[in-house]
Design goal:
homodimer; alpha+beta; NADH Oxidase; 5 strands
């Protein structure tokens, strides 16, 4: 097949929150998961697993669990809109409308990938630092990102969400996830229902990078 | 240019720990960082920055700081080798030799990318769960992974390391990183000095994925 280029895939890999319910073929699901396995993990331990949730009742229960944290998040987000100019406000409102759509329709996506991780199989090198730890994520989110990029290559839309981590006990019971495995990412995937992939809105490299020490311009 | 395909890049993006000191052109460094910006972050907040360390003295100091945690890690790793069969042992010894080479020669890589993050700009949805938090990593490691893949596309070798998070206070002082920004990834990048990119050794999708609930085969 004519494979999509790497930079083309990365530069157009938008969060796609409006998805059609059409099923995704098994071989495509397998390619997405294989792409995830290619990502690096600490000591090559691959301390993650993924549950592909396709069952209608299970997806619906996930959507119901999602709504509580989503409603709280949306309320906070609207507070933060105060003081935005009209253009920025309109842009934020568009994102929020799509995210609200997702919160209400997530169960209609053909697959929801639930990524799990095992903290006991990770060397969490920032565990002792006096601030929130993130390093465990270094052995799971590269895999999630590979899956998002593979979905882009397959013409599928998806979005990385983590809100359901706030309902981990209920998700654990629903999906029978054994201790000490835990949840780290929820990725609904489906054919884009509206505009789908395209140009991204991001802060440019000039504002993201320094040379040799903090604050020194690189470019 | 004839762009590398997405799946080709992902499936051959090996950890390359032996790197040549040849400098990396500015425009290539910029492409790597731009690729990182394309990754998703929570609420599109891009709560990370990257310091491209090129200064010889600063790289050398990073390498010196790395050696302490590396020596401890290597000792532990060798303990874990006991009981391995000859083939697995030989494979692990090869990885360890390359990682030891990196620990001693990291300063010779032309660039070391130091990724920083701001926990105050993250919604860490698993902060209340009774296990190590990883969700903050969901807004930084997709960007790191994009940079690794872009390096692959540019014919450059690199490897994601996090050991220096154990020396964060010293790294913070060296690179003048202001609170509350903190470190999450250290990526030396250079032209591969030996075999470079190629096939990966990974657990296959069949062992990584379930259908609808934990333990149920997907394929």
């Amino acid at each position: 097949m004519g494979e999509i280029g790497l930079y083309e895939a990365m530069s157009s890999c938008r969060a796609v929150r409006r998805q059609r319910p059409d099923p995704i073929p098994d071989e495509v699901v397998r390619r997405l998961i294989e792409a995830a396995t290619w990502a690096p993990t600490g000591a090559n331990s691959q301390p993650w697993r993924v549950i592909a949730v396709r069952d209608a009742d299970t997806k619906q229960r996930l959507q119901e669990l999602y709504l509580g944290p989503w409603n709280a998040y949306e309320k906070n987000a609207r507070q933060a809109f105060k003081g935005l100019g009209p253009e920025a406000l309109a842009s934020q409102e568009r994102v929020l409308a799509a995210a609200t759509h997702l919160a209400k329709q997530m169960h209609r996506s053909p697959v929801i990938f639930v990524f799990c991780f095992n903290p006991e199989r990770m060397a969490i090198t920032d565990a002792e630092q006096p601030r929130p730890s993130v390093v465990g994520g270094g052995s799971v989110y590269p895999a999630v990102q590979n899956l998002l990029l593979a979905a882009r290559a397959e013409g599928l839309g998806c979005v990385l969400t983590t809100l359901l981590c706030m309902r981990e006990p209920e998700v654990r019971a629903l999906l029978e996830i054994p201790e000490p495995w835990a949840t780290c990412a929820f990725v609904p995937v489906g054919i884009p229902a509206s505009r789908g992939h395209g140009p991204l809105s991001r802060r440019p490299p000039e504002k993201m990078a320094f040379l040799d020490r903090w604050g020194a311009p690189l470019f």
